[in-house]
Amino acid sequence: MASRGDLLNAAAWATLGSxxxxxxxxxxxxxxxxxxxxSAPGLTPGVVGALMILLALVLALQSRRTQVxxxxxxxxxxxxxxTLLAMLLCxxxxxxxxxxxxxxxxxxxxxxxxFTTLFSLRDWRVSGRVRRGLVQTAAIAAGASVxxxxxxxxxxxxxxx
Amino acid sequence: xxxxxxxxxxxxxxxxxxxxxxxLGATLAGIMIGLLPGLSATLGVALFTTLTIKMAPNxxxxxxxxxxxxxxYGGSRTAIxxxxxxxxxxxxxxxxxxxxxxxxxxxxxxGIATTGSVAGSxxxxxxxxxxxxxxxxxxxxxxxxxxxxLGMVGVMMSGSLTGSEPVKGxxxxxxxxxxxxxxxxxxxxxxxxxxxxxxxxxxxxxxPALVGAFGFAEILTVMSASRVAPMRSALDSVLPKISDLLxxxxxxxxxxxxxxxxxxxxxxxEDMAAWSSYAAAKRASRERELFGKGSVExxxxxxxxxxxxxxxxxxPALxxxxxxxxPAAVLMSAMIIHGVQPGPMLMVNQPQYIYDVVxxxxxxxxxxxxxxxxxxxxxxxxxxxxxxxxxxxxxxxCVLGAYSITQRLFDVWVMLVVGVVCxxxxxRGFPVAPFVLGMVLGDIIDKSLRRGLVxxxxxxxxxxxxxxxxxxxxxxxxxxxxxxxALRRLVSRAVPxxxxx
Lengths: 161, 501
Known about the structure:
Chain A has helices spanning 5-25, 43-65, 77-97, 104-127, 130-155. By secondary structure, chain A is mostly helical.
């Protein structure tokens, strides 16, 4: 069921479509190469941009026709913080730490250890298993990272970052 | 006769010890992937594509198809025991599978799932062998105009049938087509939307994008959800009963046919096949009141349908170069990486290959039968590993999977960005499958549109007047008009209402 939140969605899609359409229109038509104008590089993305704007308008109309409804399900605070933490850890590992000369085995092990610890620490405290949890997680993190690295490098012959 | 010769050759080549080991190992890995909620068949096939790059082409495709079949089958385990589908394709199995488990018949439910999956897969394999050459021969008559509409039908159908609102699905499809245009233009090698970055000249690679959409986005989804305590269910015998097979043979045939037909539809996938088979079985059943309360027939129908859709999805992928599902899209990419060009010319250039795929799918089916009978209990230990441990390990695999195709950190960034965007869009009700189809079909749509307009000197007439183009254009129009509220009301008054599960 469409909702008023879709009005925001429609605005975003219409903006994206407009940007694509304008960029496609302004794209070089390669006249100096004497190409057929119907094969210009900007043709397909231009059509895509125009269709996006059209569908965004339809989405906006649909959202205005339906009754007031909350826009999707706003994530409960607990799950939003878990989502952001997971996103931060993953982007930090994959986007920022890789490719700077550190061993992938070490980076992978640290990432798995930190990720698991941050998400499981509360449960460990409740059950009184903090030390055991940390030791087990460290062992799993190290083992998994070593195994995955060996698998990719030695069995599947992939050079690690 | 020639087809049988090709099939015999394929089966002989697959009977080697390494091939059998690959088939069993890959199917087991696929079952593990399907077992774990949050990991999809698409992610499994994408990750294994990166692992198998250095393998011989046929061995690589053997591994990938076995992972595909194993993952779709494996998801039925958690559907039955935890009421959580391991993959979207197993959602229909939750309804009756879990109810049977709660009645103390978890083992019987898994036996039924195994039987249905094997039967559906075998039915699909027969259709794959029969229909792929026919479709490929028909497609030799297709030109630029037909391929344009075929691509558009794929994207629109995927948008219409996945998610709750077609407009949102179509927008995602358009986004996928746009992303496919980033990089060097395939006609004139002109850089589009690269903003001067060399890394973007090669475009946005499909595998890293898929790993992002189905891997990273799923990890974020899983981590944002509350924990689910696993249900410890005592397992009874998992051996399928012959009486179940004989009693429901009509259901098996009907579901197999529906599964293949739905699998052929571009971008629709195994989950729709499972639901369609389930709904049809319920309508035709004499035990309709049992559906949703532990119906053996319902579970059989769902699992037969979703596994029959796998070979079904491979039919258009091989014959037309148009994938029938997201995992089939990844398989197609893998074939291209290994030097096979799916499409109408495949029957001309490499006719043996189609029968190689038939033989491989047959091997994968036999593997799920073996594991379904002997490995139920051992495999279930995977479910005890907490998600806080599994998910970061899966993410490390996603990073390496995205990196290993061309060994560029740029692809890792593609995986991250696509993952975050798809996660956010999914939360706002936009389905991901049409985006994937758009990326896969964008190149065909782009080239065909421009070639068609060059051939017709700017005239749109051939797009609507050539016979096959006219049929495909009419199909696009039907898909569009089907969403107009006034027309839907008119149709629903004219057609009697049918029960839905």
